Amino acid sequence: GDSVTQMEGPVTLSEEAFLTINCTYTATGYPSLFWYVQYPGEGLQLLLKATKADDKGSNKGFEATYRKETTSFHLEKGSVQVSDSAVYFCALINSGAGSYQLTFGKGTKLSVIP
Amino acid sequence: EPEVTQTPSHQVTQMGQEVILRCVPISNHLYFYWYRQILGQKVEFLVSFYNNEISEKSEIFDDQFSVERPDGSNFTLKIRSTKLEDSAMYFCASSEARGRGLDTQYFGPGTRLTVL
Lengths: 114, 116
What we know:
The complex is a heterodimer of chains A (114) and B (116).
Chain A: E1 3-6, E2 11-14, E3 19-21, E4 23-26, E5 32-38, E6 44-50, E7 56-59, E8 62-65, E9 75-77, E10 86-93, E11 103-104, E12 108-113
Parallel strand pairs in A: 2-12
Antiparallel strand pairs in A: 1-4, 3-9, 5-6, 5-10, 7-8, 8-9, 10-11, 10-12
Chain B: E1 5-7, E2 10-13, E3 19-24, E4 31-37, E5 43-50, E6 53-57, E7 65-68, E8 75-79, E9 88-95, E10 106-107, E11 111-115
Parallel strand pairs in B: 2-11
Antiparallel strand pairs in B: 1-3, 3-8, 4-5, 4-9, 5-6, 7-8, 9-10, 9-11
């Protein structure tokens, strides 16, 4: 079945540091890829998405590029802020396989210190 | 901005009791979903619902679970006889459609269910 693998956390960075959270997937065909963020005590919010190979999703300074050749969708931000502290989830929908459920990675907790 | 809402935010129940978790999806969305997140674990798909029918369900969604859209706005998840292992955060989500590019799912804030 489909699966998503994220780098293990937690990740602790100083403010203004560069962030990379690795995400790779296993799926047949061409899934849509997503990053969701969960701030403390809140639900899941869509951060960005990409629906086909080489697409770049971006939002709030975060970026991720859909790499079909490496089956990856790594999340990056050039300069993190304390307010970025949250849990980040990589996910996919493999509608080509007839499924519309989100398959999530385990999540990566990010803590940004001043 | 439209959003998915869920009630209650926290539900405490005794083992064996029935619970109903409520969700109001975004008004023009047609597809509805329930997910759960056991503390410290990944978010897991339970069920999807369209046109008053279940369209997909996971192995977790056994006979103890049911879903319903009782009116034009609410979408509910019922657990018939709760078990300790049902303790989790339950998220409702909705999407406008299912085609590529329209299948983004928007999540509610969740209901934390605690089974004692």
